[in-house]
Amino acid sequence: MGRLIQCHLAALLVLLTSVSGKQCVYADLTPGISLGAQEAVNQFNALNNNTGFHFDDLTNGPVLIDNPNFGGYTGVVELKTTGGYDSPDLTAYGGKGFLTFCVQPGQDVIFTSSHYIAQLNYDGKYSSVVHRDQSQTHLTVGAAFLYKEFVLGNLDHLLSSYGNDADAFGIAVGGSIRFLMGYDNQRVAWVVNNGNQDLDNKILIWLLSRYLELTGIPADTLTASDIGDIIRYLESTYYEPDAFYDEIGYYSVFVMNVEHSPGNLSQNFIYLANMDDQPYVPEPATVLLWTLGTVGMFCYSRKRSVKK
Q1: Does the predicted TM-score (pTM) go above 0.85?
Q2: Other Cβ atoms closer than 10 A to 37
C-alpha cells in the first residue's frame, strides 16, 4: 500500500465500519455472462451514418477547470448534441444531461472548432484512452465504478462537503476518476487532511464504503491489508465492459475517443450505457456459480493479475 495512505488507514477503518455487510464475498466479475457491450458500441458508433456522436463546442457546457494539482482538466463537462444530428442513448443519465469527465493525464481539450465527433473505443475486451502518440490506457474498474455512481446521482449528497461549490465538487470527482485510472500525479487524492490536497478524500472514502455495500463485504472484518487490496484492485484492474461486476451492475462504461476533425484526436471522455435492454444471457454454469458463490468465496480470494 502506498506510503501516502498508511497513516490514515485507522481513520478509514472507522469510517467504513458504518457500512453493514450481507455476506463476506470479495466480488469479482461474474464469469459466463455477457452484457451485450459490442451491440451497445455498434449502436453508438453507427449513429449519423456511421460517424458516431456529434456534439457542439465544449464551451457551450460547464467550463472545464484547469487544476495543476491534477495534471490538467478535471471538471465536469456537459456534451450537447449538435443540431440536426442523432443523440446516443442517454437513458442512464436520467434526463440530467450528458455529464462526463476527461480521462487522460495532462491532455487539454483542443478548441479548434465548434464541432466534435466521438466514437466508443472497445476491442472486445477493454475500453481504452487513446493518447496523441497512439499509446493506450485501459479504463480501470475503479474509474468505471465511480463514474457510474456519479451519473446515477449517488454522489450528490457530497456536494455540501465542498461548500455547495459545483466547480470544486467537479474537480474532486474528476481528480478521483483520474487517480483511479492509475495516473501517478493523482496519488495525492488519498491523503487525508493535508491542506489543499484534501479535495478527493471524501469521495474516495465514500466510494470504498459504497464498494463494500454493493459487494456485501462486512467492514468490521477488514484489516489495513484488506483495504490496501481493495484500493489496488480498484485502481489497477482493467475493466471489461461486457462483464458483470457487483459494484457496477447492469451498466457498461466506455471511453469515447473524440476528434475535432477526422484523424485528429482532441480528447477522451467516458460514457455510461444502461445494459438492461441488451441481450445478456447467463450460461447454465454461471447459475451454478451464483449458487455456490455465497458458500465458497470468502473475502479476499481474488488476486487478478493486470494484463499490460
Answers
A1: no
A2: 24
